[in-house]
Design brief:
Shape: rod-shaped
Structural class: alpha+beta
Radius of gyration: 55 Å
Helix content: 25-40%
Oligomer: single chain
Strand content: 25-35%
Length: 281
């Protein structure tokens, strides 16, 4: 210890300098502060929390998908796909993440399997139903043709050489040897020579009468008969209008060789057959 005034060395604990009498003031050494170590806890960011939430959402989507994939099939496949993506992107909480990935992957597989099974079932159903539908359509068509022989009938004289020569396809016969009979669904008709038919025709309405007794008699031969009475409303011969119009009466003998698309048509004149035609439609 040293006197602050004269510089003489002094003993510790002396209050006044023995040389100059100056009061000795003890210097207080500043205490050294010890630094405390502060541990910084890692702060959980929103990103990590969000990543964990993705795993939970993935698992929820997986549960929903596994339930409805059996019912909705391919129509719900976007849900498990989204769940699978979220599961793969998720971090932390591996239990939720892994569960979500597994459930969504299984749901995608179920959706695809159920979709394929549905296609096979529909295909088999159509395959089974098609013959019955086609059979029903043919039955209806045949019934309509048998009872109501609508359509365009191309005819040649029954006893002519054309009837034999063109029996497979009357339409190929020469134009000047053909006659056309159009029976329309509105119960009207048009009849006349094929060549320049616009100059030669009879127009009117008709009424069908199915010859039940005769049909029963010739049923085994594949023939059915129909009586047609026509009321003529307009007529023209060689471009000249005919005013003394009379009723027209003809009988159609339908042949089942080609679903009633072939017929023998006989035109009556005073209860006797005047002209007979071999016709096809």
């Amino acid at each position: 210890m040293v006197c602050s005034k004269c510089g003489k060395e002094l003993k510790d604990g002396i209050k006044f300098c023995s040389s100059c009498g100056t009061k000795v003031e003890a210097k207080v050494e500043p205490k050294k502060e010890t630094k405390k170590e502060v541990k910084v806890e890692p702060v959980k960011t929103e990103v990590s929390q969000g990543s964990s939430a993705l795993g939970i959402v993935s698992m929820i989507l997986g549960i929903v998908s596994i339930i409805f994939s059996w019912i909705l099939s391919i129509f719900i496949i976007l849900v498990p796909i989204a769940g699978l993506i979220l599961g793969l992107c998720a971090k932390g909480k591996k239990g939720f993440k892994i569960t979500g990935i597994i459930l969504n992957a299984v749901s995608i597989a179920v959706c695809i399997i159920m979709f394929i099974a549905g296609l096979v079932a529909v295909k088999e159903g159509i395959k089974t139903a098609t013959p019955e539908i086609e059979k029903g359509i043919k039955t209806v068509e045949k019934t309509v043709k048998s009872v109501y022989p609508y359509g365009t009938w191309t005819c040649v004289s029954y006893y002519s050489s054309e009837a034999t020569q063109y029996s497979d396809d009357v339409t190929k016969a020469p134009a000047d040897s053909k006659t056309v009979l159009n029976l329309y669904t509105d119960n009207s008709f048009r009849y006349g020579p094929y060549s320049e038919s616009y100059k030669n025709y009879y127009k009117g309405t008709f009424k069908y009468t199915v010859e039940t007794e005769k049909n029963e008699q010739y049923k085994s031969k594949g023939e059915s008969f129909m009586d047609v009475n026509a009321t003529i409303s307009d007529a023209m011969i060689d471009g000249q209008k005919v005013y003394d119009k009379t009723a027209m009466h003809f009988e159609m003998e339908l042949l089942e060789v080609d679903d009633n698309d072939t017929a023998i048509i006989g035109f009556y004149d005073n209860y006797s057959i005047n002209n007979i035609y071999y016709c096809q439609r």
